[in-house]
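debug: dumping io for the single-chain case to check the tokenizer round-trip. Nothing else runs in this session.
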Amino acid sequence: MTEKQESHSNYKGFVAGVFSGIAKLSVGHPFDTIKVRLQTSNSARFSGPLQCLLQTIRKEGVPGLYKGATPPLVGWMFMDSIMLGSLTFYRRILHETLFNPHRMAASPSSFAERDLHLPDSKIHKLPTLGHAMAGVMAGATVSFIAAPVEHIKARLQIQYSSKKSERLYKGPIDCVSKIYKYHGIPGVYHGLSATLLFRSFFFFWWGSYDVFTRLLTEKTALSTPAVNFWAGGLSAQVFWITSYPSDVIKQRIMTDPLAGGLNDGARRFPDWKTAARTVYAENGWRGYWRGFLPCFLRAFPANAVALVAFEGVMRALP
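debug: decoded output
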């Protein structure tokens, strides 16, 4: 493969990731709002996901479910572009180096269009471990964009008042500017280390995505978009089952008062360990799974649609 062709193929991954981000937001944000509110509150405020949903709609209307949607609307386009674009790049690099076959036929996903027209028996596909490793690397890369986006989103989502005048932050730009004014760049990136830890579980997401893709392709007669849909949805469920406790802790850290000139309260969690211990002290092991149901319900459709969009655009681009 020439350097020009390889660069073009990597570029396709970044473009397709934009469409993936849009699709994910459209389907998943209301579920995410309920998840974050449950993760960052106790049972005195919300007894469960249904009560949280009904109370949010009753007091804030349907727009309340889309609070904090602006950061991910822009952010997820970039986040999925960076994540899926870098995932494509890291897969290719691992295929050429650590898992280097004598005949290179790396592709953006196990069964996407191949770069070399060789018989199946002669094509060496990146092994599942390679896909999992690429997932961890892509997760670390996108964390530097995801951390501030998710931080701002979470702070907006836990503003419960329906009146803007009663909220600390009027919107995402106001939120960023106030945090930056009093806490600088470190304040905007509050929760970065927790984000890096959480996204290390991409090992399970992209490793299982490859496994499901291979099994569905070999054992069923499903079309390629259908394989992408089911593999994307199922692998997202695997990811959330393995990573959810770390996400709970991440959200607690990201919504912890920053104090200082913001006058938003006193800091509770100086580090990740303190946040983890606090969650356990408040609710025991169940605290690490609070809000899991809306997350689990969201994971399949949001990520299935996102992966169909990504793989479809990858195939459609010239």
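debug: round-trip ok. Confidence is low (pLDDT under 50) at residues 1-8, 103-122.
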